[in-house]
Amino acid sequence: MTDDGEAEAVEALQRLGLSKYEAGVFVALERLGTGTARDVDRMTDVPRSQVYGAAENLEERGLVEVQQSNPIQYRAVPLEEARETLAERFEREQDRAFEYLERAREGADHKDEHQEGVWTVHGRNNVSSRVRQIVADAEESVLYAGGPDLLDEEVAAALRERAESVDVWVCSAAADDPALTDAFADSAVALAPFPDDPTDDAAGRLLAVDGHTILLSVLGGEELPGVRKETAIWSSDTGIATVLLELLRSHVVDDIDAEL
C-alpha cells in the first residue's frame, strides 16, 4: 500500500469528522487487525502519547474496541459497521475513505479473528451491531436474553434469519409480551422465560453462541432522552467465556432445555 494512498485515506477520514490523529490510528488498526499503542506508533506518525487519547475517542464513536489487557490492545470494528456509523453524518465522503481501508484489510493477515481477551463495546447501537454480527456467525446455537425494550427490529431480524439454520432461543422475564411474540411470530425462534425474574435495574442483555462466545451488557445513565446508555463486554474461546457459559448452563439452560 502506497504512502499516498494512506495519506489520502487519512485526509478523507478527517473530512468525515475524525481528527488527524484519530484517522491515523484508525487506518493503522485496519492494517494491523489488532495492535497496541506501540504497534500503532510504529506504523504511523501519530505519537504514542497521542495514540491512547485518539483510540479512546474512536471507541466512543463506535469505531474501535478495546481489550483490557496489559498492554491494552485495540481493534478496529468491521468495515461495514464503521461505514454505517460514519454515514449517518458524513455520507458524501465515506466512499473515498473506505476504498483504501477495504484494500488494506484485504492485504492484511487476519488469521486470529477470534482473539484471546475480553472486548468492550459502548453505546446501544454499537452493542446491537455486535450482537447481530455474533448471531450471524453462529453455527450451532444462539441464546439471546433481554427485555423487549432492548430488542430492536434489526436484532430481531438477525435472530429470525439465523433460526432458519441453527437453534435460537430468546429468553425474557416477559416472554409472553406481545412485543416479543409478534416479533418472532411465524419463525423458528423459541421463546422462553427466565428461571427467575431479574430485579437488577442495571441488567442489559445476554447473548451466548455455539458454546464458546458470550456477550453481557449493563445499562447506565441516559444516552439520549429516555434511552439509557448500554455497555457490553464480549469474549470468545477464552477462560472467562468458559466460566460465564458454565454459569449460564447451570442456572438458565437446564430450565429451557437448550444446549449451549
UniProtKB/TrEMBL annotation:
Listed InterPro entries: TrmB-like, Tscrpt_reg_TrmB_N, WH-like_DNA-bd_sf, WH_DNA-bd_sf
Annotated Gene3D superfamilies: Winged helix-like DNA-binding domain superfamily/Winged helix DNA-binding domain
Span of domain Transcription regulator TrmB N-terminal: 13-80
Origin: domain of life: Archaea
Entry protein name: TrmB family transcriptional regulator
